[in-house]
TrEMBL record:
Organism lineage string: Archaea, Methanobacteriati, Methanobacteriota, Archaeoglobi, Archaeoglobales
Disordered, as annotated region: 244-264
A Pfam short name: Thioredoxin_3
Protein name: Thioredoxin-like fold domain-containing protein
Keyword Hydrolase on entry: no
Keyword entries, A-Z: Electron transport, Transport
Amino acid sequence: MIVETTSEDFARLTNGKLVKSERPKTVIRNSREIVILGDVDKKKELFLKIFKKNLEDRGDIDAEVKIFIAPLCPVCPHVVEDICSLPIKKIEIIDVTDYPEIADEYDVMATPTVVIGKVKLVGKVSREEVLEWIKRGYDKKEYFAKLLKEGGAEDVVREVKKDGDASVLVDLLTYNDFMVRLGAMVAIEELAKENPEIVKKVKDKMRELLKHEDERIRQDVAMLLGDIGDESDREFLEELLKEGGDVEESAREAIDEIERRNQK
């Protein structure tokens, strides 16, 4: 086993003053590689013991996982221990207080955060969950569904803004979990306010859902078009007026809402 510790100069603002300091980097290599970016203070010895014990395993899982931690985070050591017990080829543990620019690069808002490719898992992440996402890879639909189910509509909106494609959100309007469908509606409404051009690109796809076999979907999409739509959506909504029941009521309310906006 090879253990290398280096440090680099780093300047940070402390109480309004630019203070120069050093931030350490520790690399432990065997058949696997563990990289610690930052001084994990009192937990450092615990982490090193974990790494030395688990580095005896082979790196059978060809993946790279990043774990963002903070010195006072009570959950972080448990997440680090669990993930390091997996035979993952390369793991990076990044202290966000010493390496804030890397945390910013990955939009890390809380610790612990585990990054596997484009997937971010926040909080007490289990070994099983990490293995599942490594095996699955970046399945955008399922990843967004997970975020939406956990109330992460803002995170989804941020991701959609990056690539400018909201088509997956439209797919999630038919998801079998109500909380995911609701989250997708919230995300689309937010995008319509902030980046209406992104939503316009998928408007035809949304209108097709007004013909969906499940009346709950037709009702939800009618309500959504009432919130974000315009006069061009009226003819599609008017088709639903023939159905009667809750679908007709939702379509009528949507048309009324569009008319109210036009009068402003």
